[in-house]
Amino acid sequence: MRRLLTGCLVTLLLLLNTLVLFGPLMVFALLKLLLPGRGRDYASWAVMWIAETWAEIDKLIFALCIPTQWDIRGGEGLRRDTSYLVISNHQSWVDIPALIQTLNRRTPFFKFFLKKELIWVPFLGLAWWALDYPFMKRYTKAFLAKHPELAGQDLKITQQACELFKRQPVTVVNYLEGTRFTPAKRAQQQSPFNYLLKPKAGGVAFVLAAMGEQLDAVLDVTVVYPSQRIPGFWRLICGDVPKVIIDIRTRELDPALWQGDYENDPVFRQTVQNWVNQLWTEKDARIAALRDERP
Length: 295
Hints:
Layout: H1 2-34, H2 37-65, E1 69-73, E2 83-88, H3 95-103, E3 110-112, E4 114-115, H4 124-130, E5 135-136, H5 141-146, H6 153-165, E6 171-175, H7 183-189, H8 202-211, E7 215-224, H9 233-237, E8 243-251, H10 266-291
Parallel strand pairs: 1-8, 2-6, 2-7, 3-6, 4-5
Antiparallel strand pairs: 7-8
Helix pairs in contact: 1-2, 1-4, 6-8
């Protein structure tokens, strides 16, 4: 009963926080559409400030209501006046609060690449639109075989989004697996990793091509839940997730990673894929080590 009451209380507080700040956020989002030049940039800054404030209040709600320990490791020297590319594993909706705990107001407010269907989530869908989050439409291989003209649409959306990101510092978050990890998906893919799905290099390659000179570093983030069971968001807000480990490795970017033609050069495409595969090999070993830590 205590956990149920905690979950209901946290849900109510998160909802109130969203409702209170949603109106001001949408006002400035509208101004972004109407104002030219510098006015649009000021409105965009206001939208980011409101989003960061929303995230800070969420952090306060979690700190006051649930006992989760956010064990954040690394990330020294992060700045808010430069841009980063965050590459992270993805297991649960709890990964999002973990990133908020780790990076909010330590780096520029982050942008996610979201499934197109999420634009219909009440309130949040409009907020994500206001924050210029790119909405991606994923097609199955069977669908693309029937409609080959739609191939590469996600990569075009990535390029368009990155053009917007050039106007101000930003933290671009890319989940290379493309979906949340489950043992069933791992088995279906025949993934060579124990705790990860196969990484996809296309999205990150286009981010690097569009923003390489603007990016200060890659933040290689690894999120680990020491308990054997990956928790859902409801378990988190009920106070049933004792600890989350967030490990950050700051990696310098090799300019060679964006000085090529990913779409048309198979050698360069393999170079980027090899870089991603190496990151994933190291990440898989890191997850195993963090899971084996004694309390």
